[in-house]
Amino acid sequence: MYHFDSCPDRKNLGSLKWERYADKSILPLWVADMDFETAPEIVQALEARLKHGVFGYTIPYDSVHESVIQYLSKSHSYEIKEEWLHFLPGLVPAINLCCHAFTEATDSVMTLTPVYPPFLSAPKYAKRELITVPLSFNEKNQWTFDFEAMERAIRPDTKLFILCNPHNPVGRVYTKEELTQLSNFIEKHDLILISDEIHCDLILESSSQHIVSATIDENLAQRTITLMAPSKTYNLPGLACAFSIIQDPKKRTQFYKTIRGIITEINCFGYAACDAAYRHGEPWRIELIRYLNNNYTILKSFIEESMPQIVFKPMQATYLAWLNTSQLNIKSPTQFFEKHGIGLSDGTPFGDSNYVRLNFGCPKNRLIEGLERMHEALKKEGNLSE
Ligand SMILES: Cc1ncc(COP(=O)(O)O)c(C=O)c1O
Question: What is the CATH number of domain 54-280?
Answer without folding.
Answer: 3.40.640.10
